[in-house]
Specification:
The chain contains twelve helices and eight strands. With about 280 residues, the chain is α/β, with parallel strands linked by helices. It has a single domain, classed as 3-Layer(aba) Sandwich (Rossmann fold). Helix 1 crosses helix 12 and helix 2 crosses helix 3.
Length: about 280
């Protein structure tokens, strides 16, 4: 893999540089890094795809400049994709915040995408509606409120060498440990990036931004063929929050809830996740 940088957007990314192959863009979430896609990248490469793994805006070495609310982020992603593939639609994978950003992008410009794979965060309207029916999700999402408090959040997160981040991983994916080396790389990224990754959450304090996102996602169902994967033991977003989200997709849609997996389902059950995504992309 080669480390490259987009001149247009300031996004840094890893690429296997198989430039004549169909393009797949893999977007990580919080708190994570492009390394999260290594198992999927290997499988996609063997299946004949050109794989690009960006650091999201606000995660070093990508640009730390905002804004970080969902619609501008999705437009940055669309500009990045247009730079990489000006003539051909692409396939996209998004986990957590990568899923949120990908949803907004495919809702705005569906013709730029051949297919999508979303993980760990369902359709935004499904999240909103199902949280009303399952208020336990409010407790799971309490960290979002903390992250919206400037200075305090940064101080808590950095205490004892980012112990808070490791606790989130343990809570969100019970029993799963990506390894000390993985956490070391993640912490280096966060150390160089803070507080930019928290600005994603602070943008959500704006009623105007929430209304804009809601209006976009309410304008009509997503028409890009989409597969959605979620861990049954996800401690960040409960599996019940994914219920009935198929109604927000008008094209082909498939949902898989995987047992013995939490929030980082693609790292916990890589073989099943990789096979499902590659099969979906081959069909679309």
């Amino acid at each position: 893999m080669h480390l490259l940088r987009s001149k247009r957007t300031g996004i840094a990314y890893l690429s296997n540089e198989a430039e004549d192959a169909p393009l797949v863009v893999c977007m990580h979430g919080f708190p994570d890094i492009p390394r999260t896609w290594e198992p999927l990248t290997e499988a996609l490469r063997d299946a004949g795809y050109h794989v690009v793994r960006p650091w999201l805006p606000g995660y070093a070495p990508s640009s730390l400049e905002g804004p970080f609310d969902p619609l501008p982020l999705s437009r940055t992603l669309l500009s990045f994709i247009e730079e990489l593939s000006p003539d051909q639609p692409v396939r996209i994978v998004g986990h957590d915040w990568g899923s949120v950003t990908a949803q907004c992008a495919i809702a705005q410009w569906p013709e730029r995408f051949r297919a999508a794979a979303l993980l760990g965060f369902p359709h935004l309207l499904a999240f909103e509606e199902n949280t009303k029916e399952h208020p336990r999700q409010l407790g799971r999402s309490a960290y979002m409120g903390l992250f919206q408090v400037p200075l305090v959040a940064e101080r808590i997160i950095k205490l004892r060498d980012f112990a808070f981040i490791e606790r989130l991983w343990r809570k969100w994916s019970p029993g799963f440990d990506p390894g000390e080396d993985y956490f070391d790389e993640l912490k280096r990224c966060l150390r160089s990036s803070m507080p930019a990754p928290l600005q994603y959450y602070r943008a959500l304090r704006s009623p105007k931004i929430i209304t804009e996102v809601r209006n976009l996602m309410s304008a009509g169902p997503i028409v890009v063929p989409t597969i959605y994967l979620h861990g049954e033991r996800d401690g960040c977003v409960g599996p019940e929050i994914t219920e009935e989200q198929g109604g927000y997709f008008s094209a082909l849609f498939e949902q898989l809830i995987l047992a013995d997996a939490g929030h980082f389902v693609h790292l916990e059950r890589p073989q099943v996740v990789n096979e499902a995504i590659i099969k979906w992309f081959a069909a679309h």
